[in-house]
Protein backbone atom coordinates (compact mmCIF):
# COMPACT_ATOMS: atom_id res chain seq x y z
CA UNK A 1 0.00 0.00 0.00
CA UNK A 2 1.33 3.44 -0.88
CA UNK A 3 1.65 5.43 2.33
CA UNK A 4 2.67 9.05 2.18
CA UNK A 5 6.00 10.27 3.39
CA UNK A 6 6.59 13.80 4.73
CA UNK A 7 6.54 15.37 1.29
CA UNK A 8 3.23 13.65 0.47
CA UNK A 9 4.99 11.43 -2.05
CA UNK A 10 3.58 7.88 -2.12
CA UNK A 11 6.02 5.52 -0.47
CA UNK A 12 6.54 1.81 -0.14
CA UNK A 13 7.50 0.58 3.30
CA UNK A 14 9.41 -2.70 3.27
CA UNK A 15 11.10 -2.42 6.67
CA UNK A 16 8.50 -4.22 8.77
CA UNK A 17 11.09 -6.20 10.75
CA UNK A 18 12.32 -2.90 12.18
CA UNK A 19 8.83 -1.75 13.10
CA UNK A 20 5.29 -1.72 11.70
CA UNK A 21 2.56 0.83 11.19
CA UNK A 22 0.02 0.47 14.02
CA UNK A 23 -3.42 -0.80 13.00
CA UNK A 24 -6.29 1.64 13.28
CA UNK A 25 -8.18 -0.85 15.51
CA UNK A 26 -5.21 -0.93 17.90
CA UNK A 27 -5.00 2.85 18.08
CA UNK A 28 -8.77 3.06 18.64
CA UNK A 29 -8.49 0.62 21.54
CA UNK A 30 -5.62 2.67 22.99
CA UNK A 31 -7.54 5.96 22.72
CA UNK A 32 -10.78 4.50 24.11
CA UNK A 33 -8.97 2.87 27.02
CA UNK A 34 -7.24 6.17 27.82
CA UNK A 35 -10.50 8.07 27.68
CA UNK A 36 -12.62 5.69 29.75
CA UNK A 37 -10.21 3.56 31.80
CA UNK A 38 -7.47 5.95 32.87
CA UNK A 39 -7.80 5.14 36.57
CA UNK A 40 -5.06 3.22 38.30
CA UNK A 41 -6.00 -0.47 38.13
CA UNK A 42 -4.65 -0.85 41.68
CA UNK A 43 -7.11 1.75 43.07
CA UNK A 44 -9.91 0.43 45.23
CA UNK A 45 -12.65 2.73 43.90
CA UNK A 46 -15.07 1.84 41.12
CA UNK A 47 -12.99 3.44 38.35
CA UNK A 48 -9.95 1.48 39.48
CA UNK A 49 -12.00 -1.71 39.49
CA UNK A 50 -13.18 -1.02 35.92
CA UNK A 51 -9.59 -0.44 34.77
CA UNK A 52 -8.52 -3.62 36.54
CA UNK A 53 -11.31 -5.50 34.75
CA UNK A 54 -10.06 -4.33 31.35
CA UNK A 55 -6.50 -5.31 32.31
CA UNK A 56 -7.63 -8.76 33.41
CA UNK A 57 -9.58 -9.15 30.14
CA UNK A 58 -6.44 -8.30 28.12
CA UNK A 59 -4.38 -10.77 30.14
CA UNK A 60 -6.99 -13.52 29.69
CA UNK A 61 -7.23 -12.92 25.95
CA UNK A 62 -3.46 -13.20 25.61
CA UNK A 63 -3.40 -16.26 27.88
CA UNK A 64 -5.86 -17.95 25.48
CA UNK A 65 -3.71 -17.06 22.46
CA UNK A 66 -0.51 -18.35 24.09
CA UNK A 67 -2.19 -21.33 25.78
CA UNK A 68 -1.09 -20.44 29.26
CA UNK A 69 -2.81 -19.13 32.39
CA UNK A 70 -3.50 -15.39 32.40
CA UNK A 71 -1.42 -14.98 35.56
CA UNK A 72 1.68 -16.17 33.65
CA UNK A 73 1.62 -13.04 31.44
CA UNK A 74 3.61 -9.97 32.52
CA UNK A 75 3.22 -6.71 30.62
CA UNK A 76 6.43 -4.79 29.85
CA UNK A 77 7.60 -1.89 27.70
CA UNK A 78 8.63 -4.14 24.79
CA UNK A 79 10.98 -6.83 23.57
CA UNK A 80 14.15 -5.37 25.06
CA UNK A 81 12.71 -5.15 28.55
CA UNK A 82 11.13 -8.62 28.34
CA UNK A 83 14.43 -10.16 27.20
CA UNK A 84 16.38 -8.43 29.99
CA UNK A 85 13.71 -9.41 32.51
CA UNK A 86 13.80 -13.07 31.44
CA UNK A 87 17.56 -13.42 31.47
CA UNK A 88 18.35 -11.59 34.70
CA UNK A 89 15.15 -12.79 36.38
CA UNK A 90 15.82 -16.46 35.73
CA UNK A 91 19.61 -16.42 36.11
CA UNK A 92 19.69 -14.49 39.40
CA UNK A 93 16.82 -16.45 40.99
CA UNK A 94 18.39 -19.82 40.16
CA UNK A 95 22.07 -19.15 40.79
CA UNK A 96 22.15 -21.41 43.83
CA UNK A 97 21.63 -24.34 41.43
CA UNK A 98 24.40 -23.28 39.07
CA UNK A 99 26.07 -20.42 37.27
CA UNK A 100 26.25 -21.77 33.74
CA UNK A 101 24.01 -20.15 31.09
CA UNK A 102 23.83 -20.37 27.30
CA UNK A 103 22.67 -18.45 24.27
CA UNK A 104 23.51 -18.28 20.55
CA UNK A 105 25.86 -15.91 18.71
CA UNK A 106 23.08 -14.47 16.50
CA UNK A 107 20.67 -13.21 19.16
CA UNK A 108 19.31 -9.67 19.27
CA UNK A 109 21.56 -7.23 21.20
CA UNK A 110 18.99 -7.12 24.04
CA UNK A 111 19.88 -10.77 24.68
CA UNK A 112 23.61 -10.66 23.92
CA UNK A 113 24.27 -7.58 26.04
CA UNK A 114 22.31 -9.10 28.94
CA UNK A 115 24.46 -12.24 28.80
CA UNK A 116 27.60 -10.07 28.72
CA UNK A 117 26.36 -8.42 31.90
CA UNK A 118 25.78 -11.87 33.45
CA UNK A 119 29.44 -12.69 32.65
CA UNK A 120 30.48 -9.55 34.55
CA UNK A 121 28.35 -10.80 37.47
CA UNK A 122 30.28 -14.07 37.58
CA UNK A 123 28.12 -16.36 35.45
CA UNK A 124 29.79 -18.62 32.92
CA UNK A 125 28.31 -18.10 29.43
CA UNK A 126 28.53 -20.38 26.38
CA UNK A 127 27.62 -18.85 23.02
CA UNK A 128 26.41 -21.51 20.55
CA UNK A 129 27.72 -21.14 17.00
CA UNK A 130 25.46 -21.32 13.92
CA UNK A 131 25.85 -22.88 10.48
CA UNK A 132 25.71 -20.97 7.16
CA UNK A 133 21.90 -20.86 7.45
CA UNK A 134 22.09 -19.33 10.90
CA UNK A 135 20.89 -22.46 12.73
CA UNK A 136 22.30 -23.73 16.00
CA UNK A 137 23.38 -27.36 16.21
CA UNK A 138 21.41 -29.64 18.54
CA UNK A 139 24.59 -31.72 19.02
CA UNK A 140 26.58 -28.68 20.13
CA UNK A 141 23.75 -27.67 22.44
CA UNK A 142 23.60 -31.13 24.00
CA UNK A 143 27.38 -31.33 24.39
CA UNK A 144 27.50 -28.00 26.22
CA UNK A 145 24.62 -28.61 28.64
CA UNK A 146 25.88 -29.30 32.18
CA UNK A 147 24.57 -30.22 35.61
CA UNK A 148 24.90 -26.57 36.61
CA UNK A 149 23.25 -25.06 33.49
CA UNK A 150 20.30 -23.00 34.68
CA UNK A 151 19.22 -21.00 31.61
CA UNK A 152 19.33 -21.26 27.80
CA UNK A 153 17.96 -18.45 25.62
CA UNK A 154 17.60 -19.03 21.88
CA UNK A 155 15.52 -16.86 19.58
CA UNK A 156 12.73 -18.31 17.43
CA UNK A 157 13.23 -16.19 14.27
CA UNK A 158 16.33 -14.15 13.56
CA UNK A 159 15.51 -10.50 12.81
CA UNK A 160 18.29 -9.99 10.24
CA UNK A 161 18.15 -13.08 8.05
CA UNK A 162 14.89 -14.81 9.00
CA UNK A 163 16.36 -18.14 10.17
CA UNK A 164 13.88 -20.24 12.16
CA UNK A 165 15.42 -22.18 15.03
CA UNK A 166 13.85 -25.58 15.78
CA UNK A 167 12.61 -24.51 19.20
CA UNK A 168 10.62 -27.67 19.97
CA UNK A 169 13.71 -29.84 19.36
CA UNK A 170 15.87 -27.38 21.30
CA UNK A 171 13.44 -27.59 24.24
CA UNK A 172 13.48 -31.39 24.05
CA UNK A 173 17.29 -31.47 24.24
CA UNK A 174 17.46 -28.92 27.06
CA UNK A 175 14.78 -30.56 29.16
CA UNK A 176 15.99 -34.13 28.68
CA UNK A 177 19.65 -33.33 29.44
CA UNK A 178 19.52 -30.64 32.10
CA UNK A 179 17.42 -28.78 34.64
CA UNK A 180 17.87 -25.50 32.76
CA UNK A 181 14.98 -23.20 31.89
CA UNK A 182 14.53 -22.32 28.22
CA UNK A 183 13.62 -18.78 27.13
CA UNK A 184 12.93 -17.85 23.51
CA UNK A 185 12.77 -14.38 21.97
CA UNK A 186 9.66 -14.66 19.77
CA UNK A 187 9.57 -10.99 18.76
CA UNK A 188 9.93 -11.77 15.04
CA UNK A 189 7.90 -14.97 14.98
CA UNK A 190 4.69 -14.08 16.80
CA UNK A 191 1.90 -13.48 14.26
CA UNK A 192 3.88 -15.11 11.44
CA UNK A 193 4.46 -18.62 12.79
CA UNK A 194 2.52 -20.53 15.47
CA UNK A 195 3.77 -19.28 18.84
CA UNK A 196 2.21 -20.73 21.99
CA UNK A 197 2.92 -23.10 24.88
CA UNK A 198 1.24 -26.14 23.33
CA UNK A 199 3.41 -29.28 23.38
CA UNK A 200 7.15 -29.25 23.89
CA UNK A 201 8.69 -25.80 23.82
CA UNK A 202 10.20 -22.93 25.81
CA UNK A 203 9.42 -22.14 29.45
CA UNK A 204 9.26 -18.42 28.73
CA UNK A 205 8.76 -16.27 25.63
CA UNK A 206 9.10 -12.61 24.67
CA UNK A 207 6.64 -10.73 22.42
CA UNK A 208 6.82 -7.09 21.29
CA UNK A 209 3.80 -5.03 20.19
CA UNK A 210 5.36 -2.80 17.57
CA UNK A 211 6.45 -5.68 15.32
CA UNK A 212 2.83 -6.83 14.92
CA UNK A 213 1.12 -3.53 14.06
CA UNK A 214 0.75 -2.69 17.73
CA UNK A 215 2.22 0.24 19.60
CA UNK A 216 5.82 0.99 20.47
CA UNK A 217 6.37 0.63 24.20
CA UNK A 218 4.18 -2.47 24.49
CA UNK A 219 5.26 -6.06 25.02
CA UNK A 220 5.21 -8.99 27.39
CA UNK A 221 7.07 -11.83 28.96
CA UNK A 222 4.98 -15.01 29.25
CA UNK A 223 5.69 -18.22 31.13
CA UNK A 224 4.45 -21.77 30.61
CA UNK A 225 4.37 -22.32 34.41
CA UNK A 226 5.55 -20.40 37.42
CA UNK A 227 9.32 -20.74 37.83
CA UNK A 228 11.75 -19.22 40.35
CA UNK A 229 12.16 -15.63 39.24
CA UNK A 230 13.67 -12.40 40.53
CA UNK A 231 12.20 -9.08 39.37
CA UNK A 232 14.26 -6.32 37.75
CA UNK A 233 12.03 -3.49 38.95
CA UNK A 234 11.12 -3.01 42.60
CA UNK A 235 8.40 -0.75 43.91
CA UNK A 236 4.66 -1.04 44.40
CA UNK A 237 4.57 -4.77 43.64
CA UNK A 238 2.38 -4.55 40.53
CA UNK A 239 2.23 -7.52 38.15
CA UNK A 240 2.34 -9.89 41.15
CA UNK A 241 5.57 -8.28 42.29
CA UNK A 242 7.35 -9.28 39.05
CA UNK A 243 7.37 -5.83 37.47
CA UNK A 244 6.63 -2.86 39.67
CA UNK A 245 5.24 0.36 38.20
CA UNK A 246 1.68 1.49 37.47
CA UNK A 247 0.44 -0.81 34.72
CA UNK A 248 -0.60 0.92 31.50
CA UNK A 249 -4.05 -0.52 30.92
CA UNK A 250 -4.33 1.10 27.45
CA UNK A 251 -0.99 -0.45 26.45
CA UNK A 252 -2.10 -3.87 27.68
CA UNK A 253 -5.47 -3.65 25.91
CA UNK A 254 -3.85 -2.49 22.67
CA UNK A 255 -1.28 -5.30 22.84
CA UNK A 256 -4.03 -7.89 23.29
CA UNK A 257 -5.83 -6.43 20.25
CA UNK A 258 -2.67 -6.40 18.10
CA UNK A 259 -1.83 -9.98 19.09
CA UNK A 260 -5.32 -11.31 18.42
CA UNK A 261 -5.61 -9.61 15.03
CA UNK A 262 -2.13 -10.68 13.94
CA UNK A 263 -3.08 -14.31 14.60
CA UNK A 264 -6.60 -14.08 13.12
CA UNK A 265 -5.47 -12.16 10.03
CA UNK A 266 -2.16 -13.89 9.50
CA UNK A 267 -0.68 -12.73 6.16
CA UNK A 268 2.09 -15.30 5.97
CA UNK A 269 0.91 -16.88 2.72
CA UNK A 270 1.16 -13.48 0.98
CA UNK A 271 4.58 -12.90 2.49
CA UNK A 272 5.69 -16.32 1.31
CA UNK A 273 4.45 -15.59 -2.22
CA UNK A 274 6.33 -12.25 -2.42
CA UNK A 275 9.44 -13.78 -0.96
CA UNK A 276 9.47 -16.53 -3.62
CA UNK A 277 8.77 -13.99 -6.34
CA UNK A 278 11.65 -11.76 -5.29
CA UNK A 279 14.03 -14.69 -4.83
CA UNK A 280 13.33 -15.76 -8.40
CA UNK A 281 13.74 -12.15 -9.60
CA UNK A 282 17.10 -11.71 -7.81
CA UNK A 283 18.38 -15.09 -8.96
CA UNK A 284 18.89 -13.67 -12.49
CA UNK A 285 21.80 -11.57 -11.27
CA UNK A 286 25.08 -13.30 -10.57
CA UNK A 287 26.26 -10.42 -8.34
CA UNK A 288 23.40 -11.05 -5.87
CA UNK A 289 23.40 -13.67 -3.09
CA UNK A 290 20.23 -14.71 -1.30
CA UNK A 291 21.18 -14.90 2.39
CA UNK A 292 17.83 -15.88 3.87
CA UNK A 293 17.68 -19.69 4.06
CA UNK A 294 15.13 -21.55 1.93
CA UNK A 295 13.03 -22.55 4.95
CA UNK A 296 12.77 -19.31 6.90
CA UNK A 297 10.35 -16.77 8.33
CA UNK A 298 7.91 -15.65 5.63
CA UNK A 299 8.32 -11.90 6.10
CA UNK A 300 12.11 -11.49 5.91
CA UNK A 301 14.27 -11.55 2.81
CA UNK A 302 17.92 -10.74 3.20
CA UNK A 303 20.17 -10.47 0.16
CA UNK A 304 23.66 -9.24 -0.56
CA UNK A 305 25.46 -7.60 -3.47
CA UNK A 306 29.00 -8.04 -4.62
CA UNK A 307 30.64 -4.68 -5.12
CA UNK A 308 27.76 -2.50 -3.85
CA UNK A 309 27.47 -1.36 -0.24
CA UNK A 310 24.12 -2.09 1.42
CA UNK A 311 23.67 1.53 2.50
CA UNK A 312 24.27 2.81 -1.05
CA UNK A 313 21.39 0.67 -2.29
CA UNK A 314 19.18 1.62 0.67
CA UNK A 315 19.77 5.30 -0.16
CA UNK A 316 19.20 4.80 -3.89
CA UNK A 317 15.88 3.08 -3.19
CA UNK A 318 14.89 5.79 -0.74
CA UNK A 319 15.29 8.35 -3.51
CA UNK A 320 12.44 6.48 -5.20
CA UNK A 321 10.46 6.44 -1.92
CA UNK A 322 11.10 2.79 -1.18
CA UNK A 323 12.14 1.98 2.37
CA UNK A 324 14.26 -1.08 3.16
CA UNK A 325 17.18 -1.43 5.57
CA UNK A 326 20.66 -2.81 5.74
CA UNK A 327 20.92 -5.95 7.89
CA UNK A 328 19.01 -4.67 10.94
CA UNK A 329 17.68 -1.36 12.14
CA UNK A 330 19.74 -1.60 15.33
CA UNK A 331 23.04 -2.18 13.55
CA UNK A 332 22.34 -0.24 10.36
CA UNK A 333 23.65 3.04 11.76
CA UNK A 334 26.69 1.15 12.90
CA UNK A 335 29.41 0.91 10.29
CA UNK A 336 30.58 -2.42 11.74
CA UNK A 337 29.58 -5.64 9.99
CA UNK A 338 26.56 -7.11 11.73
CA UNK A 339 27.32 -9.91 14.20
CA UNK A 340 24.76 -12.11 12.41
CA UNK A 341 26.38 -11.67 8.99
CA UNK A 342 29.77 -12.31 10.63
CA UNK A 343 28.49 -15.50 12.27
CA UNK A 344 27.22 -17.15 9.07
CA UNK A 345 30.63 -16.81 7.36
CA UNK A 346 29.62 -15.23 4.08
CA UNK A 347 32.25 -14.70 1.40
CA UNK A 348 34.14 -11.45 2.12
CA UNK A 349 33.04 -9.79 -1.12
CA UNK A 350 29.39 -9.99 -0.03
CA UNK A 351 29.75 -8.98 3.62
CA UNK A 352 29.17 -5.24 3.12
CA UNK A 353 26.39 -5.46 0.56
CA UNK A 354 23.52 -6.70 2.70
CA UNK A 355 19.98 -5.33 2.52
CA UNK A 356 16.88 -6.63 4.30
CA UNK A 357 13.44 -6.44 2.73
CA UNK A 358 10.59 -7.19 5.14
CA UNK A 359 6.91 -7.41 4.34
CA UNK A 360 3.98 -6.42 6.53
CA UNK A 361 0.24 -6.09 6.86
CA UNK A 362 0.01 -3.19 4.43
CA UNK A 363 2.31 -4.57 1.70
CA UNK A 364 0.55 -5.17 -1.64
CA UNK A 365 1.27 -6.95 -4.95
CA UNK A 366 1.75 -3.51 -6.55
CA UNK A 367 4.40 -2.64 -3.96
CA UNK A 368 6.42 -5.67 -5.01
CA UNK A 369 6.12 -4.78 -8.72
CA UNK A 370 7.14 -1.18 -8.00
CA UNK A 371 10.00 -2.39 -5.86
CA UNK A 372 11.34 -4.49 -8.75
CA UNK A 373 11.35 -1.59 -11.23
CA UNK A 374 12.83 0.80 -8.68
CA UNK A 375 15.47 -1.77 -7.83
CA UNK A 376 16.52 -2.20 -11.48
CA UNK A 377 16.73 1.55 -11.90
CA UNK A 378 18.78 1.94 -8.70
CA UNK A 379 21.20 -0.79 -9.71
CA UNK A 380 21.68 0.55 -13.22
CA UNK A 381 22.43 4.01 -11.86
CA UNK A 382 24.86 2.64 -9.25
CA UNK A 383 26.61 0.28 -11.64
CA UNK A 384 26.38 2.70 -14.54
CA UNK A 385 25.14 0.00 -16.86
CA UNK A 386 21.89 -1.20 -18.36
CA UNK A 387 20.55 -4.43 -16.86
C1 LIG B 1 14.43 -10.42 17.57
C2 LIG B 1 14.22 -9.15 18.33
N1 LIG B 1 14.28 -9.18 19.67
C3 LIG B 1 14.09 -8.08 20.41
C4 LIG B 1 13.83 -6.86 19.81
C5 LIG B 1 13.62 -5.66 20.68
O1 LIG B 1 12.25 -5.34 20.77
P1 LIG B 1 11.76 -3.87 21.18
O2 LIG B 1 12.09 -2.97 20.03
O3 LIG B 1 10.30 -4.02 21.42
O4 LIG B 1 12.51 -3.50 22.41
C6 LIG B 1 13.77 -6.77 18.42
C7 LIG B 1 13.56 -5.48 17.76
O5 LIG B 1 14.23 -5.11 16.83
C8 LIG B 1 13.96 -7.96 17.66
O6 LIG B 1 13.90 -7.94 16.32
UniProtKB/TrEMBL annotation:
Residues 12-371 form the Aminotransferase class V domain. SUPFAM superfamilies: PLP-dependent transferases. It comes from the Bacteria. Its cofactor is pyridoxal 5'-phosphate. The keyword Nucleus does not apply. The keyword Nucleus does not apply. Gene3D superfamilies: Aspartate Aminotransferase, domain 1, Type I PLP-dependent aspartate aminotransferase-like (Major domain). Pfam families: Aminotran_5. This is Cysteine desulfurase family protein.
Amino acid sequence: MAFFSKGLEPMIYLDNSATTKPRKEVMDTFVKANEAFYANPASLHGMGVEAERLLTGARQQIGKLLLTEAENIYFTSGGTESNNMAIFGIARANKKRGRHVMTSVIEHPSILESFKQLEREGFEVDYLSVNRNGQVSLQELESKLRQDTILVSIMHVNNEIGTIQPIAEIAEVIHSHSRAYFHSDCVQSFGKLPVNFEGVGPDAITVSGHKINGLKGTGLLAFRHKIPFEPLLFGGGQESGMRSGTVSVPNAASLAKAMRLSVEENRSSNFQKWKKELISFFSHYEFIRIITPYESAPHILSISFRGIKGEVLVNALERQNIYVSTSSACSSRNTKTSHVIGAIHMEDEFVNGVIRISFGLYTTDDDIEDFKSAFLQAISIIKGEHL
